[in-house]
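Quick one, T. Sequence first:
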Amino acid sequence: MSTHAQQASIPKEEPDDDPDDVLFNTIYGVRTIELNRPKKLNSLNGSMARKIIPRLKEWEKSQLASVVIIAGAGEKAFCAGGDVAALAQYNQQGNSGIERSKAYFGLEYQLDHLIATYPKPYIAYMDGITMGGGVGLSVHAPIRIATERTLFAMPETTIGFFPDVGGSFFLPRLDGHIGAYLALTSERLRGVNAYYAGIATHYIDSSSLGNLTARLSELVFKDYADMAERLAIIDTTIEEFGTGLPYDEPMLLAGNLRSAIDRCFRYNSVEQIIQALQQESGETASWAQKTLKTLSERSPTSMKVALRQMDLGRTWDISDTFRRENHIAGKFMEHPDFISGVSAKLINKPATIPKWEPASLEQVSREDVDAFFNVEGTTPLPLHGTAPAWREYPFGYLGLPREKEIRRVVMEGGKSPEGVLAAFLTMKEGKPGVREKVEEVLGRKCEVGAGDEVMWVEDEKR
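Structure tokens:
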């Protein structure tokens, strides 16, 4: 694959596109995007992408547009994913249908990349179901707001696909081996747990979103303020609407469970992960058995591709991510598991059990997996914009502290547990959830030595 991809052209609407599946609005300096297919849980399709990309490019040039907010219509969903049922039906039409599906993914990834590299503050209201394609519209934004109604998942391995929409980038960059766990199992994170896990950067009650939008529309930025300065003002404004975190929703990926996730999902082969799960005992044994059952129901090809993706994706830059995923998606459109999985889970009523080909992990060879990642001689996906091809989110600091940040402060030495916590509370200006996150990491990864000094203990030494 060439590293010099062409610039993407601005898509034009097609005659059959629904004129009302996306609504746009202007409120002073705020520009809003409302995904408007509530009966379909705001599932993303080509018609919607063809509307959103031109509007984002238009607002990018406008001096009057200061902030972009994306949300979903209704109370159930932000966006439940891409309209994969339609794609599976295309694929059953033969080569022409498969090419149509491939074109959709190219368009979707161009939109996701544009969002990830957008030069103006882009805010995603992850209010309700946020899965698959909806994650692509939100998780790469510098500001991502979860509410009590948020329901996050990457369910692709259940339908014979892979965690796309930039999953190669954001999943391996989550703490520990949470990303591989979410990729292979499609585990759901509800409400505040999407915030604790780093999927969202903020948490407020859904009833405050309307007032927040109005407040953001009142913000006036100095012309010379850069992106970081603008985001800092927005960050402070969002915190005005915080009412604390729900006391009855403890951190899910924490303590012994979190240790077990890292212990079992640290391997680069699905077979080794399964073996590790089989060896779990004590408090996490029932979780391990449930996880083994879950993995037994997933597409063997999807799991092996997803795990390779987690390993390679941690080194890809944001542009290469979407180009590589475009190639992987194209391969899956030619693979029988996608039609089988989507038909069984989403089209058949009642749902049926997919028939995976191959049916077992042993039958999926290394060469089979290699084919999804071999881009030699292929034409890279054209992308919008000329943003730097960064390898870490440039504004990742807006969320809760990451485990590696906590480790760095501990490794500097000379601090008690209270001293480490105080450092982060000061750094994050009392941001909700900082105390819970830091205390969980210290309790799981550290010991207290002489003089009350906290010491980081690597897993192999515990």
